[in-house]
Specification:
The chain is an alpha/beta fold. It has 3 domains: about 270 residues, Rossmann fold, CATH 3.40.50; about 35 residues, no CATH class; about 150 residues, IlvD/EDD C-terminal domain-like (Glucose Oxidase, domain 1, 3-Layer(bba) Sandwich), CATH 3.50.30. The protein is built from 22 helices and 14 strands. The strands form 3 sheets. The chain has an 8-stranded mixed sheet with strand order 7-8-12-11-10-9-13-14. The protein has a 4-stranded parallel sheet with strand order 2-1-3-4, with helices on both faces. It has a two-stranded antiparallel sheet with strand order 5-6. The protein is globular. The relative contact order is 0.11. The model has no long low-confidence stretch (mean pLDDT about 95). This is Dihydroxyacid dehydratase.
Amino acid sequence: MTPEAGRITSQELRSHQWYGTDGLRSFSHRARTRQLGYLPEEHLGKPVIAILNTWSDINPCHVHLRDRAQAVKRGVWQAGGFPLEFPVSTLSETFQKPTPMLYRNMLAMETEELLRSYPVDGAVLLGGCDKSTPALLMGAASVDLPAVFVPAGPMLPGHWRNEVLGSGTDMWKYWDDKRAGLIGDCEMAELESGLARSPGHCMTMGTASTLTAAAEALGVTVPGASSIPAVDSGHDRMAAQSGLAIVELVWRQRKLSDILTAQAYEDAVATVLALGGSTNAVIHLIAMAGRSGIKLTLDDFDRIARTVPVLANLRPGGKYLMEDFHFAGGLPGFLARLTDVLHLDRPTVAHDTLREQLDGALVHNSDVIRERDNPLADEGGVAVLRGNLCPDGAVIKHIAAEPHLLRHTGPAVVFDDYQEMQRTINDPAAALTPDHVLVLRNAGPKGGPGMPEYGMLPIPDYLLKQGVRDMVRLSDARMSGTSYGACVLHIAPESHVGGPLALVRTGDLITLDVEARLLHLDVPEEELSRRRAEWTPPANRYERGYGALYQDQITQADTGCDFAFLARPGEVPDPYAG
């Protein structure tokens, strides 16, 4: 059979190795497919599409994805493909301890090995909660099949009395109000039922919305997918459209490597920064780019940040929520206001060029998606810091901090771990003032373990009662993308491996200067050398299991916290299906 121009034949499908030959193994594969209840006409000669589903009963962000998988199947069948659903690890940001970041690379490995080892021609990846988006795309990029990402979508806006609530962001706000004595248990009980009203991930510009927007900017979703509310009927239609799209991608053999180019990653960085997105995107995009064989660095983020304004007026740095963003034009409308900094001639999963994809995109509310001459901030929302306290870099989401703290010098108050901080932060004997710099260490990739979201250190109760709502806080941890404040994060190298953060002592002066991109420990080098000689490495936390693999292989924040053996280049052969 002669293929159409630019399209492969059924004999060139990867799944043909399993199903289409005359050998014993192929006979066995066909027989076992009959055992599953499928007719030959349903699957032979058709693209086999894996639907990787991160649904779980304990993941509220993904609890609707069981239904969305059915919509994806509907689209695959309509396009003449054969869908097969695979359950994969669910990374519930809310419930998984010590942190789902510990398990991001496990889902990435599972994704890679599942797609490599089964008779799969293409994949639809269902995720959205913070770590699932990068994990699925990291694994899929390592296999390099055609793939489409289906974002879980944001939940509905929260409500309490006469206020519209943003998940995460308003949790932090009202919890501080409770600690300050401004509201009580009755109000908190009401807030429990109003903060998160539906399936879907956080509807602020937290990590989930940031990463799904980055996926759309990369070109691996259908247009507009990242902002559709999870329970909107449009979300079902988007899932079906993704099923249609993946079959066409398989026939055209448009692989992820054709989509995930260096230009695509630059555009994703610009998108994240112009959205005022989560600091977590820095780690994840660096790791994702690494799996695509592309070197993305902290310096790239800082360089691009100086070229793009913040145009999304979204919490925690702005006013609105994701449903407002969606109906204001979503990411297509948003990107239409950034075309001068984007690479418009690269392909996406839905169009031959991003230019074609954005043609006709409109913005319907210029307070939600700002005009270029009326930005929320003149520069991108994340700054990269350097200095003797973070020789390999640190980050701060400065648009979510009180402006007076963006240039600050104050004495350090050091906590050796998160539990110590919880025990002692409210001790009046510490006599903390708003000028102090709170320092948390041993919360990084190895020390956390898993780099938990401890970076928004709590302000002492007695200062909250005085009206203090922000202080300079430093750590080698991460923080939730829904958080806010003058929090310096991802300090690298981390303290657990002997980074300068391990040498800080209470009373040392620390200078933060965001405009100068500086984080400096005001201690003479001779004294730091003496402290370094006295420092003793802490014991490893794990003696066996996945944790032992993690602590042996995890890289630092500035290089994406991938596993060294997964991040390095090298060929992996396709299995012999014989």
